[in-house]
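We close this part of the discussion by returning to an individual protein. In the encoding step, the backbone of a single protein was reduced to a row of integers, each denoting a local shape. The sequence in question and its structure tokens are set out directly beneath this paragraph.
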Amino acid sequence: SITTQGYYFWNGVIYVLAEGISTEEDGGSPQPIGKQIWMEGFPPDASSTLHLGPNNSFVWGLVEVTGDFKSGGGFGKDGKYTEFLQATSAKALENVKK
């Protein structure tokens, strides 16, 4: 089990913990950037305090996550992620929704 910090990103297809988030000034959808770990089990109640896209089309924000870490490849969408984190707890480190 590990505890780490990063940017949680979810868009219904991708569920990752990333080094950063690229936000487009023209209103485009944010995208995870840098090193990414496939993550499952992020608590929905923690998501509600982060950045939410129109019609909940995406969620992103700085978080601290604890969970079981695995490496060796073949995780997530199309098996393209080499590392996996099964979250057991998480908290937002920035509270967007006051």
Notes: The chain has one helix and six strands. The helical segments are 44-47. The mean pLDDT is 90.
